[in-house]
Amino acid sequence: MRRPNFKGWVSRELTYLSGENTLDLRRLAFLAQGPVPRLRERLVLYAFAAGHVTRLKGYLYREDMLAEVDILAEKLTGVNLNDPEQTESLELPARYKKAFLSYMAAYRRIETTNESKKLRREKSVELQKRKGISNARICRALGLDPGNTNAYLKDAEIDRLSLEKATAILKYLHTI
What's the rounded Cα separation, in Å, for the pair 86 and 88? Predict the structure, then answer.
């Protein structure tokens, strides 16, 4: 699993929220100013990430959005949008803070997933020892690769199994 960069993340968010399979600024600006107001923050942030602020301002006709872009231009000047630590301390409107929090969650997904797998492993090893269940039995019952399962359970190599498989092991050990 790789960390997303801000431009890629906001591009995916923008295409998802718009329901369009395009990053055409003119089309997205029309949607953000009219029928799909949820696009507003993601569109403005995409323009900053892609360096298309001037082009976006040319497509905007609502004065409140133009003023918002100008205010954000002052606050985002010199800020590395790929670094969640820099964006965390910015004084932004709540809607933009929420967008940056979503990016931070995506950026930190690796650590969150690994921590979840560590917790599942600890509980699984505890249940396995208490119930006397072998790794081979777990592998046979769940159809898992023995090498990866042994590395996960014995050597604490959490990268060897997915979160779904770690959860399946824990559920199996609970039901026995």
Answer: 6
Residue 42 near residue 17 (C-beta atoms within 8 A): yes
pLDDT in tens, 30-64: 999 987 778 999 999 999 999 999 999 999 999 99
Contact 13, 42 (CB under 8 A): yes
From CA 53, how far away is CA 46, in angstroms rounded?
A: 9
Taking only the tens place, the pLDDT of each residue in 68-107 is 999 999 999 889 999 888 888 888 999 999 999 999 999 9
Q: How far is it, in rounded angstroms, from Cα 75 to Cα 86?
A: 11
- The encoded tokens of residue 117 equal 């797998």
pLDDT confidence of 142, banded at 50, 70, 90? very high
CATH assignment of 112-175, given 1.10.150, 1.10.3470, 1.10.260, 1.10.4030?
1.10.260
* Cα–Cα nearest to 106, from 10, 15, 16: 10
CB atoms within 10 A of CB 100: 20
Instruction: Copy the structure tokens of residue 54.
Output: 């001037």
Q: How far apart are CA 129 and CA 122, in angstroms?
A: 11
Based on its alpha-carbon atoms, the radius of gyration of the chain, rounded to whole angstroms, reads 23
Domain ranges of the chain: 6-107, 112-175
